[in-house]
Design goal:
159 residues, alpha+beta, Nuclear Transport Factor 2, Chain: A, five-stranded antiparallel beta sheet, 5 strands
Amino acid sequence: MKSAKFVLLALVFFSTINLSAELRAQKRPVAPDALVADLYRQHNRKRSPFFQTRSRALVNKYFNQSLANLIWKDATTKKEEVGALDGDPLYDAQDIQIKNFVIGKASMEGSIAQVPVSFENFDKKVQINFLLIKTPAGWRISDISYPGGYTLKRLLTSP
């Protein structure tokens, strides 16, 4: 009888451990501002989805399908040395000397979120706004707006 209780307790214990491991392995949805922070981290490590032609999955990790298609097309079909993006799209500049970098808190309304990013580049204050939408795969960037009223999507679609 004691051995049967021991076996039962052992089964309950190990199934609980297994269930906990399964729950920990499940990915939690990434918050919009966390996705933007991860994009900057990857970009600064030289593993940016921009300007690379090796991994479409890297582009899809951060951008919704329509913007990802434009970024990938720009990177893979340029006939000249430079595509539509002739500067760094995360800093809106060709040359950077970044200080006071801050990723703001996401403001969300339903399946749409905005994340402001502010910094100083060569002592000029800049704010870039990321527009994100919730997709079945999680939050994805659908556009980036820059000072001056233009957007990443507009840059990639203009002739």
